């Protein structure tokens, strides 16, 4: 690794340096960086990137194909549709006569290592003939039609591709494949299930199409992977409040993106391999680069070198690693000294794994922890560096990193951020996405066309963390938890595990050494839990009936949380208040349900679930996104609802109503006796 000012250790084409120098020199006095963005020095206008147009044309690889997508898909005509069904999860098919407005139930991104699944469930009790909010969309023949937006929930689940059967079981147990929208079905008015079509992207959409047909009786409508990644990223960045964040030296900061100033940006999706996509608008993008050194490399090479069985096990090992035992540092080469002339400190890694060549040690003599950390660092750093060079190459302002390699893992994000920061001399910043792994699946989901999701306002999408999150995330296998008793017994198991999960991960002492970086994972927050396959994403609730308060000056930037719990004192105070109040709340909730044995059991389960969430948030306040007091109270409500306490204060309200009604006649008489005063 080398400083920007010196001679890069990596042989990067002169064109890059030349281009960089040109940009820097030509724009010396122009605006440099805004905290919320990655700004390549000298760029002046986010929407109009004319400065570098020439560079872009000159340097675009000949194989790059620029893809423009809008309105080219077949539109569904659902005017005579008659989907049938009545209950949410079990029989999700919906009757929508004369409307072209239903929403698909699920979509998949079947990657080289992981399958990502996004599925939709309607809000309970929502009538199909609700007067729902509508969105007007232009369709391919130029005419416009309106599509109501349904209220419901978007869930996120992942599986290992090698365990595809678990995914098929999950789909089957939730009957997701029976709630599909199927263009062929609508257009031909065919009614048999054989024609069911589901949207999927990623290589597995091709590879496993026959298996889906065989096991679930559905055909796969294949969506282009890059199309989907971009559609998913654009949707998240526009519709989800606090989706993007920066992560530097363990510090996570949410970034509010201005929708009018989103494009262009570089999207880096780190899956098994890495794709780098320059995004210019909705459906307007170009895959400008990629690297074959990605998540699959870490997992594959790591497995061979450490005998770890899973990606998460490997990541967890890295938490206890020390890469200095295996990486060759500048100090190892320069007798403990810095090479300050070119800006390299003694602790900078000169060559990843380089020490292994000179040591007499065999593989078994190295600690798997150290190997894992060195590998993680090498790959993350490399991705950060190549990404920055591509941002520079196209004069892009922002780099968003997605893909399941990142997994909300603090050290991975810190390393990528460090590389971007280091090579850009602080002029550029990496940003991460909370739904990092689901970009492709979300894009495939949205390709059902008429969802209108991309038109949703931030206020209409609310992320909630019921008892399962973050613990259930990727772990809901087998049949869904059907009844409450199952939920509670599962909860008991989860709490046992949860205690372990929320315990702080032992850390090596911090070791930031300046240029060249930190030697051991020193990042706090977002550190790996022992069950790392759990996701940090909740369920997205679509609430299309919400209206924005008309007097708000800037609804998109409005922050309803007045108490920000990123302030540590506030956080401690409110956690204490809520924890101490918990037994009392449980008593009231149980009393509201008649104080039965069943209610007591549910009350205990609720208390355990909510305490586990509190412990998790205490450990990592930003685990579920930006945390304000309103979010915390909503989380508590959601937990109560999860255990079927619809109103914890019902008994108090009832008692107070009764008391009020008892004194009402006297009060009315007293009022009648009063002299009228004019
Ligand atoms: C081929 C892929 C798009 C597949 O996506 P994935 O399943 O890895 O998410 C990706 O692995 C990739 O971009 N690989 C890098 C190839 C290269 O540009 O060198």
TrEMBL record:
Question: Which GO terms of type biological process are on file?
Answer: coenzyme A biosynthetic process
Which portions of the sequence form the region Disordered?
42-76
Enzyme Commission no: 2.7.1.33
Keywords assigned by UniProt, alphabetized: ATP-binding, Coenzyme A biosynthesis, Hydrolase, Kinase, Manganese, Metal-binding, Nickel, Nucleotide-binding, Transferase
Protein's UniProt name: Pantothenate kinase 2
Q: Which reaction does it catalyse?
A: (R)-4'-phosphopantetheine sulfonate + H2O = (R)-pantetheine sulfonate + phosphate; (R)-4'-phosphopantothenate + H2O = (R)-pantothenate + phosphate; (R)-pantothenate + ATP = (R)-4'-phosphopantothenate + ADP + H(+); (R)-4'-phosphopantetheine + H2O = (R)-pantetheine + phosphate
UniProt function note: Catalyzes the phosphorylation of pantothenate the first step in CoA biosynthesis. May play a role in the physiological regulation of the intracellular CoA concentration. Functionally redudant with PANK1. The phosphatase activity shows preference for normal or oxidatively damaged intermediates of 4'-phosphopantetheine, which provides strong indirect evidence that the phosphatase activity pre-empts damage in the CoA pathway. Hydrolyzing excess 4'-phosphopantetheine could constitute a directed overflow mechanism to prevent its oxidation to the S-sulfonate, sulfonate, or other forms.
Ranges of Polar residues compositional bias?
62-73
Q: Does the keyword Zinc apply?
A: no
Q: Which organism is it from?
A: Gossypium raimondii
Q: In which pathway does it act?
A: Cofactor biosynthesis; coenzyme A biosynthesis; CoA from (R)-pantothenate: step 1/5
Which cofactors, if any, are listed as required?
Answer: Mn(2+); Ni(2+)
Q: What is one term from the GO cellular component aspect held by the record?
A: nucleus
Q: Where is the composition biased (Low complexity)?
A: 45-54
Q: Which family does it belong to?
A: In the C-terminal section; belongs to the damage-control phosphatase family. Phosphopantetheine phosphatase II subfamily.
State the Gene Ontology terms under molecular function: ATP binding; hydrolase activity; metal ion binding; pantothenate kinase activity
């Amino acid at each position: 690794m080398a400083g920007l000012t010196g001679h890069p250790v990596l042989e990067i084409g002169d064109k890059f340096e030349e281009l960089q120098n040109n940009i820097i020199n030509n724009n010396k006095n122009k605006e440099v960086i805004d905290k919320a963005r990655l700004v390549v020095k000298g760029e002046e206008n986010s929407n109009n990137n004319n400065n570098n147009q020439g560079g872009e044309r000159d340097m675009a690889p000949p194989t790059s194909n620029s893809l423009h997508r809008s309105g080219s898909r077949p539109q569904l005509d659902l005017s005579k549709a008659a989907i049938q069904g009545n209950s949410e999860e079990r029989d999700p098919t919906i009757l929508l006569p004369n409307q072209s407005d239903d929403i698909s139930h699920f979509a998949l991104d079947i990657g080289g290592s992981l399958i990502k699944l996004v599925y939709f469930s309607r809000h309970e009790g929502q009538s199909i003939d609700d007067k729902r909010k509508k969105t007007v969309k232009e369709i391919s023949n130029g005419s416009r039609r309106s599509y109501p937006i349904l209220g419901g929930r978007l869930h996120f689940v992942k599986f290992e591709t090698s365990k595809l059967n678990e995914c098929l079981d999950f789909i089957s147990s939730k009957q997701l494949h029976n709630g599909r929208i199927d263009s062929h079905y609508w257009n031909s008015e065919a009614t048999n299930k054989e024609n069911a079509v589901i949207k999927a992207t990623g290589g597995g959409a091709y590879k496993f199409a026959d298996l889906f047909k065989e096991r679930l009786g559905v055909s796969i409508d294949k969506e282009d992977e890059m199309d989907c990644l971009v559609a998913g990223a654009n949707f998240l960045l526009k519709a989800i409040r606090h989706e993007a964040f920066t992560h530097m030296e363990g510090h996570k900061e949410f970034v509010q993106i201005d929708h009018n100033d989103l494009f262009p940006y570089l999207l880096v999706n780190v899956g098994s391999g890495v794709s780098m996509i320059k995004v210019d608008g909705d459906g307007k993008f170009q895959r400008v680069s990629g690297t074959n050194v990605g998540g699959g490399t870490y997992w594959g090479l790591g497995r061979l070198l450490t005998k770890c069985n899973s990606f998460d096990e490997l990541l967890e090992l890295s938490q206890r690693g020390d890469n200095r035992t295996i990486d060759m540092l500048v100090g190892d080469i320069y007798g403990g000294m810095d090479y300050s002339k070119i800006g390299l400190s003694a602790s900078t890694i000169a060559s990843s794994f380089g020490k292994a060549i000179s040591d007499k040690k065999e593989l078994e003599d190295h600690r798997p922890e150290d190997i894992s950390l060195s590998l993680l660092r090498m790959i993350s750093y490399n991705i950060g560096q190549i990404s920055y060079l591509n941002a520079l190459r196209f004069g892009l302002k922002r780099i968003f990193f997605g893909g399941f390699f990142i997994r909300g893992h603090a050290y991975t994000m810190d390393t990528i951020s460090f590389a971007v920061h280091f090579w850009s001399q602080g002029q550029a910043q990496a940003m991460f996405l909370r739904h990092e792994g689901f970009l492709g699946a979300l894009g495939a989901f949205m390709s059902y066309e008429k969802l209108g999701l991309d038109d949703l306002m931030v206020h209409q999408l609310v992320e909630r963390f019921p008892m399962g999150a973050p613990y259930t995330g990727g772990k809901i296998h087998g049949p869904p938890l059907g009844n409450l008793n199952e939920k509670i017994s599962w909860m008991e198991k989860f709490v046992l595990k949860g205690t372990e999960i929320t315990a702080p991960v032992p850390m090596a002492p911090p070791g930031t050494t300046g240029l060249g970086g930190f030697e051991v994972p020193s990042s706090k927050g977002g550190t790996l839990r022992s069950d790392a396959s759990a996701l940090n994403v909740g369920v997205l609730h679509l609430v299309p009936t919400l209206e924005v308060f008309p007097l708000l000056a800037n609804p998109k930037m409005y922050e309803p949380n007045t108490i920000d719990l990123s302030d540590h004192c506030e956080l401690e105070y409110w956690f204490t208040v809520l924890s101490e109040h918990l037994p009392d709340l449980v008593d009231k909730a149980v009393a509201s349900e008649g104080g039965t044995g069943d209610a007591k059991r549910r009350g205990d389960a609720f208390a355990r679930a909510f305490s586990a969430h509190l412990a998790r948030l205490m450990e990592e306040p930003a685990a579920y996104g930006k945390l304000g007091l309103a979010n915390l109270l909503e989380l508590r409500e959601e937990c109560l609802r999860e255990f079927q306490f619809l109103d914890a204060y019902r008994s108090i309200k009832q008692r107070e109503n009764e008391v009020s009604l008892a004194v009402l006649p006297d009060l009315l008489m007293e009022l009648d006796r009063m002299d009228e005063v004019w």
